[in-house]
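> tool_call: predict_assembly(chains=two)
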Amino acid sequence: MSETARNRLMLAIALIMAAIYLFPLYWMYVTSLKSGSEMFANPPSFWPSSAQWQTFAFVWESRNMGRYLWNSTVIAFGSVALIALLGTGCAYVLARYRNVWVDIGLFLILMLQVLPASLMITPIFVGFTQVGLLDYPRFAVILAIAAKSMPFFVVLVRATFMAVPMELEEAALVDGNSRVGAFYKIVLPLARNGILVSAILIFMQAFGEFVYSKSMIQDVSLQPASVGLNSFMGPNTSEWNNIMAYATMYVTPILAIFVLLQRRIVSGLTSGALK
Amino acid sequence: MRRILSSVRDGRGFDIVLVGVPFAFLFALAGLPLIYNILMSFQEVDMFSLGSVIRPFVGVDNYVALFRQPETWPILTNTLIFVVGSIAGQFVIGFGLALFFWTNFPGASWLRGLFLVSWVMPGLVVGAIWNWILSGDFGVLNFFLRESGLITANIFWRSDPSFSLWAVVIANIWLGTSFNMILLSVGLSAIPGDLYEAADMDGANAWQRFWTITLPMMRSTIGAIIALGLIFTLQQFDLFAAITDGGPNNSSNVAQYWAWDLSFRQYDFGRGATISVIMTVFVMFAAAVYVRSTRHEVRG
């Protein structure tokens, strides 16, 4: 078999596997366009006979999605801002030196990275109640997410800083920059892409965060879209086309960002998680 | 004072501030809760004593009572099944896909990256989609299984106690496979190619090459991925909330979901903290394995 024929065959198999793997995603989009009766047709149809675009407007209005998505955005942006502010410098220091203290710091960071949110929520909730933080529930969620996701950010960004040659920073110091100056003018710009990609990853995580928001935000008008989706799905729900429309409006922006930046996100992820 | 300021601007102090503030933050929001959790597991905490730190001290009563509860062992067994089932599925499928994409044809890396959408989606959305796919009468999975002749009657994935846990396992395998595959691909591409050339000259077939080169060379990667899988499956919460809610009758409940359920639905924070402490020990153990198997790379 010639090289091109082999490549084409492999590509065809790969496309089929991707199609199978991504079928659940396809099913979400198709279901969201079906009418109430077509959704329950047997055998199921794999292409909507008449696309019900008005479902989206209906769900957007009736579920008050604008407010939910706004809250998700506020929480995600708040978390990313806090994490980037605190985590970038931490990652820089952990990348720049190599001694026993850095090893201990890294070990602590990696250990904190793994604590499940559903286990941490009990002490966080009780503690936050006692110090009165639950009066600002979205801020409380931002704090909790920041503590949960910052270790991951530090690990990813540290890998980026490791790739910045130390000689450049030393040259800037020789030229009379202070440490602060060299950090802002030389190191940060060189690591900008890596920081940005890690921040986007954290944003996507925080945008879908559920445990903390569900437990700490009682006020419906402050809840994010994940909690809204959860309360939309009652135990015996049958309006799956509406739920899938909700899910579509919720994830499509995330998927768009991911597909656009796919190569960078994947390489940023792999450089941090294993190396 | 001026000396400290100038040190912060241009010296050792700069590093100490950069690393000190985040660690103080992490200590306040992750370290203290961990300690507080242990304290609460020895106390009786309910809605009324929520506001005070000094509560009735009950010793190990919470632990004893916990293991006397009839649902404890089934739930711990469920957790074990969930973890082993999920990791096995994610790893085997992920490894298969990684080996396939390793053959390197045009478009391979882009397509491989596309798989990762399952991992970046909010867990609740993944849960919602699978909830619909797995639904009993109108679920599309039952349709496929019927058409292929594997089953004759519909499986009620979410409401049948013997399938409800597997419903979540299936969704979790889907969610985590892509991440496994990406990391395994990284490990595969790090194996030096001349090893295979040498094996070729010695006349080794594909099967022998896999067992004598690929697997041994991947040992530390595989260790790290299994440990990561353990960490991620023990964090999985959203899928339970979205698909079965732990039911019916706890048949799909796992420890991490139960801990939340005890605290936030039954308002027994003391017992919720007790399970959290037990599970945290497990997670820490997995984390130690993970850190060990990536240690030399982390130091790199």
